[in-house]
Amino acid sequence: MPLLYAVPPHTTIRPAVIDQTDPNGEDVSLRGGDLAITAGGDWGALTGGLAARQSVEREAVASPGDLPRRPQWGMGLRDSLMRGAAPELRDRQAAAVRRRLNVNPRIDRVDDVSVVQRTDIAPGAVTITIAATASGQRIQFTTTVQPRKGA
C-alpha cells in the first residue's frame, strides 16, 4: 500500500515592512553590548529618544575608523582618556561630540554638550552630558566613558 502525504498549499508570509531609512524608527535594544531579550523571547526594541540615546552612547566609545564602512563614525572619547584634564582637551572632546551629534540622523538639534574629567570614578574617566532634541522630544542624559580594564 503506497504512503500518501497531504501537503498544505504554499503560502507566503510577508513580515511588516519597516522603513530602514526612517531615523526615528525602531532599533534593536542593546544593554551593555548584549542584545536585550524580552520575556517572550524576542529582541527588545527602542524608538524615539531611547533609540537616540543608545545611538549616541554607542558612538561615544567608538573611534573613527572602528567601522570600515563608516570611517568617520565614532566620537573617539576612549582614545582621549588618560591624557590629562586640560581645558583645551575637554573643549576638543566636546567639539568632537557636537560634530558627531550634528550628523547623527536621530538627533534633531544639539542644545548643549559638556565633558568633565571624573577621577573620582576612575583615573582618566570622562563624563559627557548632552542636551538635545531627538524625534521631536527633548532628551538630556549623562554617560561616563572609562579606560578599558587592563589598559
Strand residue percentage: 15-25%
> Describe the biggest sheet?
3 strands, antiparallel
The backbone outline, from C-alpha atoms, is elongated
The computed structural class is alpha+beta
Number of domains: 1
Percent helix = 10-25%
Tell me the number of strands.
7
Q: What would your notes on this structure say?
A:
This protein has a single domain (about 25-145), classed as Nuclear Transport Factor 2, Chain: A. It contains two helices and seven strands. Helices cover about 20% and strands about 25% of the residues. The chain has helices at about 50-60, 85-105, and strands spanning about 25-30, 30, 35, 45, 105-115, 125-135, 135-145. The mean pLDDT is about 80. Strands 5-6-7 form a three-stranded antiparallel beta sheet. It has a two-stranded antiparallel sheet with strand order 1-4. It is of the alpha+beta class and about 150 residues long.
